[in-house]
Design brief:
Blueprint: H1 11-15, H2 17-27, H3 32-36, E1 42-44, E2 60-75, E3 80-88, E4 93-99, H4 102-109, E5 115-125, E6 128-132, E7 135-138, H5 145-153, E8 156-158, H6 167-183, H7 195-200, H8 206-214, H9 219-250, H10 263-269, H11 277-290, E9 297-302, H12 308-321, E10 325-329, H13 333-347, E11 364-368, H14 374-386, E12 389-394, E13 408-414, H15 421-428, E14 436-441, H16 447-453, E15 458-462, E16 472-478, H17 483-498, E17 502-506, H18 532-540, H19 545-554, H20 565-574, E18 582-585, H21 591-602, E19 608-611, E20 624-629, H22 637-644, E21 654-660, H23 667-677, H24 681-691, H25 694-701, H26 705-708, H27 718-734, H28 742-762
Protein name: Probable DNA 3'-5' helicase RecG
InterPro entries: DEAD/DEAH_box_helicase_dom, Helicase_ATP-bd, Helicase_C-like, NA-bd_OB-fold, P-loop_NTPase, RecG/Mfd, RecG_dom3_C, RecG_wedge
GO molecular function, one term: ATP binding
Length: 763
């Protein structure tokens, strides 16, 4: 062959350097394959387009519409001019606004009756949706009957585009590419689907699928193409996971069966409450897995407070009874310390094995974190090597080379999405044989995502809350529209504290330019760009009233930075919460300072804790009953749900207030309303997935997966994913090395390379 395989060819060879540079920088498209897989987001027809009535605020859109009227207006006593063009598609109308000299040139082109594609960012000004200075391409320029006819009959692909490279430029680039492939009869195109699968499921050939997705003649073409391309993604991903499961199932492990009359029985005997039905079922699944001679790989998901730690602890005690050691890995030091505290409290004298006054059936529970003093660390390491410590709880410090175990039998990982596959493997290599693995997450994951992201793990779900947990009421506080609601918020906080309770106030940023919290809190997709302050600021700069108001409406006045812990704490202590004990907590504090604050908060010596999302995982203070989340629109749905799970952990009911400046009609407000509307984490994680691209959710959970999903939507394509999982398992069982399927191997290598690269980037 000698040629570069068609799909790997760099775009600059095909489209020229400058075009390729813009596409690489702004759309992350580098090769012919990237562009072929950059599918249209939707298709416009002459009759129905993005219904103008449904345009999302603050998003970059492309619409096809007809000019209804155009008018030139002056402002600032005749010194400024602007052209206002109203376009319509039958469902609604949209105003295009052009300022300054450019207005005159456009007035000549944009006359009533002309049709075109218009691209820009949707904003609202004087209650009207508008595009400010949109790019456009008129579609009936030639206005010959033929051109109009061709346009009327065509489905126009609308691509995910950006300001620097509009959808119609992408159409031209894709056309160039398709012509090249057609000329070479699609040589060099590898098809990952085995022919038997393709024929058995009646799926289109790959060149057909690419033709039909980019140049469809009918809606049926689009359906055919999508059905085929979804299968590619689902199947290759599921083969990768099936191979991982297959490799794991070949590994030997020591079966760990609990012994009667051991530490587990002693622990169960002194439990002050009975386990829930769910806890018993899940425990049984885990003990069955532990009794086999292959390593368990199980994902345990359960809401905050559903009793996952109890289930994990019983599994660890069972392994200790069987002569092994158990390690629990937490994402942060604060959380590792908290787990250590709660495990030793739950075990009582059973956690003092080998110590004076300890139970003779007990075992030592040690803590191992990066910030421990040398002496304490040396003692902990010694306890691990000798087997004196049956249970160790720690951070990634456990994975370091120096850490040696006597006989590691079980690894429990808390909050999986902060812990990649590679780290699981590193810890696994600590055992004489691979240890059993239990992964816990409090982020509820819809079944399809579990099949996609954690497809190499079996799943158990705890969905009942233990008795005695109180319900949490959640309300949205629109601070900008109704400032008195915000004042009432602080009154409510004061009332709770006067009633003997405590409060959290959560902010997205630390302050003093320490930036965002390291382990959370990047603004969620779809957060609103302009806010009240930016609007008033740009209007007061003394720009001509109209243009300043315009900029404010556009949200291009600087988007104010997210509220910061240090600023908010200072303002609250001086203002609405003066006289109360207000303290701060964030990830950049020294570990001992953090612990000190948390300890005093837990002891009731602090009334209000102003914190970043460091509290999202695991801090347990039953006396805290109210949480105020500032700039709530800057957090994802699942994250908000996690955060509010911190209140109402005792017998008093919890209250969560979501403070936002987002305008009423924005997607952000819809997200917040969803969180306020239900306490069901699984329902919310579905909403989260539907509203964000699942890439964000998957990317959080495991390196590399997000980049491979373009056509597949994890929520809607449950059937494809489940079917692909079955087919993949059959293919891998018959031919684990895929020797008979070279094209599938090629596709897999490409996926896994990308996954490894992404992982290295993250490192």
């Amino acid at each position: 062959m000698g040629r570069v395989p068609a799909l790997h060819e760099p775009l600059k060879k095909i489209l020229g350097g400058s075009t390729a540079k813009v596409m690489a920088e702004h759309l992350d498209l580098h090769t012919a394959g990237d562009l072929l897989h950059h599918y249209p987001r939707r298709y416009a027809e002459r009759g129905e387009l993005t219904r103008l009535a449904d345009l999302p605020l603050d998003e970059h859109v492309t619409v096809v519409a007809q000019v209804a009227k155009a008018a030139m207006k002056t402002f600032n006593h005749g010194k400024g001019v602007r052209l206002e063009v109203v376009v319509t598609d039958g469902s609604g109308s949209l105003t295009l606004v052009f300022f300054g000299r450019g207005a005159y040139a456009r007035e000549k082109e944009l006359i009533p009756g002309r049709r075109g594609m218009f691209a820009g960012k949707v904003s609202v000004f004087n209650r009207t949706r508008q595009l400010l200075h949109p790019d456009y391409e008129l579609l009936d320029r030639d206005s010959g009957a033929d051109a109009a006819e061709a346009f009327a009959g065509r489905l126009l692909p609308i691509y995910p585009a950006c300001k620097q490279f509009q959808s119609w430029k992408l159409t031209k680039a894709v056309d160039t590419l398709l012509d090249l492939f057609e000329a070479e009869q699609w040589q060099g195109l590898t098809d990952p689907l085995p022919p038997s699968l393709r024929d058995g499921r009646g799926l289109a050939a790959l060149p057909d699928a690419f033709r039909k997705v980019h140049r469809p003649r009918t809606k049926a073409d689009i359906e055919d193409a999508r059905a085929r391309l979804k299968w590619d993604e689902a199947f290759v991903l599921q083969v990768a996971l099936a191979r991982r499961r297959h490799a794991d199932s070949q590994l030997p492990a020591v079966a760990r069966k609990p012994v009667a009359g051991g530490i587990l029985d002693a622990f169960d005997a002194k439990l002050p409450f009975t386990l829930t039905e769910g806890q018993r079922t899940v425990s049984a699944e885990i003990f069955d897995d532990l009794a086999t001679e292959h390593p368990m790989h199980r994902l345990l998901q359960g809401e905050v407070g559903s009793g996952k730690t109890m289930v994990a602890l019983r599994a660890m005690l069972g392994v200790v009874d069987a002569g092994g050691q158990a390690a629990m890995l937490a994402p942060t030091e604060v959380l590792a310390q908290q787990h250590h505290r709660s495990v030793t409290e739950m075990m009582g004298e059973l956690a003092e094995g080998g110590m004076l006054g300890g139970a003779e059936r007990g075992t030592k529970v040690v803590l191992l974190t990066g910030s421990m003093g040398t002496a304490a660390r040396r003692r902990a390491l010694l306890d691990l090597v000798t087997g004196e410590a049956g249970i160790v709880i720690g951070t990634h410090a456990l994975i370091e080379d120096k850490v040696q175990f006597h006989d590691l039998g079980l690894v429990v990982v808390d909050e999986q999405h902060r812990f990649g596959v590679e780290q699981r493997d590193a810890l696994r290599s600590k055992g004489k044989q691979p240890p059993h693995l239990l992964v816990m997450t409090a982020t509820p994951i819809p079944r399809t995502v579990a099949m996609t992201v954690f497809g190499d793990l079996e799943t158990s779900v705890l969905d009942q809350l233990p008795a005695g947990r109180s319900p949490i009421a959640t309300h949205v506080v629109p601070a900008k529209d109704k400032p008195h609601f915000l004042a009432r918020t602080w009154e409510r906080v004061r009332e709770e504290i006067e009633g003997g309770h405590q409060a959290y106030v959560v902010c997205p940023r630390i302050g003093d330019d320490l930036g965002e919290e390291g382990d959370a809190g990047t603004p969620a997709k779809g957060a609103p760009k302009g806010t009240a302050k930016s609007a008033t600021k740009s209007a007061s700069k003394g720009g001509t009233g109209d243009e300043a108001a315009q900029a404010a409406a556009e949200g291009d006045g600087e988007r104010r930075p997210p509220l910061a812990v240090l600023d908010v704490a200072a303002q609250l202590a001086k203002g609405p919460l003066s006289g109360l004990r207000v303290e701060v907590l964030h990830g950049r504090m020294q570990p001992d300072a953090k612990d000190d604050v948390m300890r005093r908060f837990a002891a009731g010596e602090v009334d209000v804790l102003v914190a970043t999302t460091v509290i999202e995982v695991g801090v347990n203070v039953p006396n805290s009953t109210v949480m105020v989340i500032m700039d709530a629109d800057r957090f994802g749905v699942s994250q908000l749900h996690q955060l509010r799970g911190r209140v109402g952990r005792g017998s008093a009911p919890g209250l969560c207030l979501l403070v936002t400046d987002a305008p009423e009609a924005s997607p952000s407000r819809a997200r917040l309303a969803a969180v306020a509307g239900t306490l069901d984490g699984f329902e919310l994680s579905r909403i989260d997935l539907e509203q964000r691209r699942e890439g964000d959710v998957l990317g959080q959970a495991q390196s590399g997966v997000r980049s491979s999903l373009r056509m597949l939507t994890v929520i809607d394509d449950e059937e494809v994913i489940a079917a692909a999982r079955e087919e993949a398992a059959a293919v891998v069982a018959a031919d684990p090395e895929l020797e008979s399927l070279p094209d599938l191997r090629t596709a897999l290598d490409a996926l896994l390379d990308e996954e490894r690269e992404q992982y290295l980037d993250k490192g």
